[in-house]
Each structure stands twice: as structure tokens, then as C-alpha cells.
Design goal:
It is a single chain. By secondary structure, this protein is an alpha+beta fold. It has 3 domains: 2-56, Arc Repressor Mutant, subunit A, CATH 1.10.10; 67-151, no CATH class; 164-228, no CATH class. Helices cover 53% and strands 13% of the residues. The chain has 10 helices and 6 strands, in the order αβααββααααααβββα. A 3-stranded antiparallel sheet has the order 1-3-2. A 3-stranded antiparallel sheet has the order 4-5-6, with no helix packed on it. Strand 2 and strand 3 form a beta hairpin. The longest helix is centred in the C-terminal third of the chain and has 26 residues, at 196-221.
Length: 230
């Protein structure tokens, strides 16, 4: 997919709508957003606002000689761009068994079905990256397309907005912050005057909440069902 962008616009910046067109879509539909999200998840493209372009590693993967060290190293970095994959690779320097990896995932909140899907996806990506390092023959499809197929990246990625909107307090001494996201608003209600101890407690709870949301977002990026994680 990244090759299609490169063939159309090289390393020029393109809008999200133009990128969707290069990928074969007439609009920013779910499938188009899914492909864009997949390319971003693997670090093949990056974004600055509505401007998208091929990354340095993406360019190396596409253009460097097939057996060059630069290309092999770039492909390995790309393969482990998803945060879930990098976390697995950190804990497992070599390929884990399927059962061991599923257990590791289950301990981190994945359901049995979700752990099985994630383990299969990771091991397929690892095998692909390893085969490239060893110089084994691979299919004639572009590398990034193989990675997309291996991980079944088909879920749309929604753009996040960081706009903060103040809402009138529900009662004296209470405030609300509304974070506007494409999927809907996230509303946080809190006392105006927090003690240092209460702030620390709130910070701890928010860290746990963010980790849970990150796992859910990673699952969507990697094409798992919403119910695959607890």
C-alpha cells in the first residue's frame, strides 16, 4: 500500500483524502481509514495534521536493494512498530511458543480468543521479519503488503482531537473537562481543589485507565474484535 503512495506522489505531503484516493478509495470510508491506520501503525507513513508522507524507513523498505543491510534493518523496525508487538519483543528476545505467548497476553487483559488472534498475528510478523533477515525467498508482493496481510489490519483508525472544552460546573467547586473525539466526547468531572494525596490517587487511576484504552486501541489497529480484550 505504501508503494502506491510513493508511485503517485513520492515523498510529497498529501492530504488524508488524497491518500485515500491513492489507495483506491473515492472517500474516507471505513476501509480507506483502515488502510491508512495500518500504514501508520507500522510506521510506513507519518502525519502532521492532515499532511501524510512516506517515512524514512518506509522509503528504505521500498527502494533499498532487496538484500541490503539498510533494508533488512528498516523492515525489522517497521515490523515491530505497533506498541503491542514491541512490548512482546522486549519480553521475548526470541520467538516464544504460541501457548507461552497466549498466556502472556491473557495476563495483560486479553480474552482467550483475543490472545489467540494476537499471538498468531505476532508470530506471523516475526516469521516474516526473520525470513527477510536470513535472506529467504519471499513472495513478489511488496513487503508492506505482506505485513498488512499477516496482521489482518482492516479496522478504521479514527483521528483524535485534543481540543479541550470547558463546561460549566455541575455545582460549586466542581469542574468538567470535555475532550472531543471523533467517536464521541470524553467527560471528566473533578473537584476544583484537589489535595496532593488526591491528585496522586487520581493520577494512578488515570494511568490504569489509559493503559486499558491503549490495549483496546491496539486491538482495533491489529484487527481484533472489540470483545477480544477484557
Amino acid at each position: 500500500m505504501a508503494r502506491k503512495l510513493y508511485e503517485k506522489d513520492g515523498r510529497n505531503k498529501v492530504s488524508k483524502a488524497a491518500l485515500a484516493g491513492h489507495l483506491g478509495h473515492d472517500s474516507l470510508s471505513g476501509p480507506a481509514l483502515g488502510k491508512i491506520g495500518a500504514l501508520r501503525a507500522y510506521g510506513l507513513i507519518d502525519a502532521n495534521g492532515d499532511d501524510y508522507r512516506i517515512t524514512d524507513d518506509g522509503l528504505t523498505a521500498l527502494m533499498a536493494p532487496e538484500d541490503s543491510l539498510d533494508r533488512v534493518e528498516a523492515l525489522r523496525r517497521l515490523a515491530f512498530q505497533p506498541s503491542l508487538f514491541s512490548a512482546i519483543a522486549k519480553d521475548f528476545p526470541t520467538a516464544p511458543s504460541d501457548s507461552n505467548l497466549r498466556y502472556w497476553l491473557a495476563k495483560r487483559g486479553f480474552s482467550a480468543d483475543g490472545a489467540a488472534k494476537a499471538a498468531k498475528t505476532y508470530l506471523a510478523t516475526l516469521a516474516l521479519a526473520t525470513s527477510m533477515e536470513k535472506g529467504y525467498p519471499h513472495s513478489p508482493n511488496p513487503m508492506e503488503d505482506e505485513m498488512m496481510e499477516a496482521t489482518e489490519l482492516a479496522r478504521p483508525i479514527q483521528r483524535r482531537s485534543t481540543e479541550m472544552v470547558d463546561v460549566s460546573p455541575l455545582k460549586p467547586g466542581v469542574r468538567q473537562e470535555v475532550i472531543a473525539l471523533d467517536e464521541g466526547d470524553v467527560t471528566i468531572t473533578f473537584p476544583e481543589n484537589l489535595s496532593s494525596e488526591s491528585f496522586e490517587d487520581l493520577e494512578d487511576h488515570l494511568k490504569i485507565f489509559v493503559r486499558r484504552m491503549q490495549r483496546r486501541a491496539n486491538a482495533k489497529i491489529l484487527g481484533f474484535d472489540e470483545g477480544d480484550q477484557h
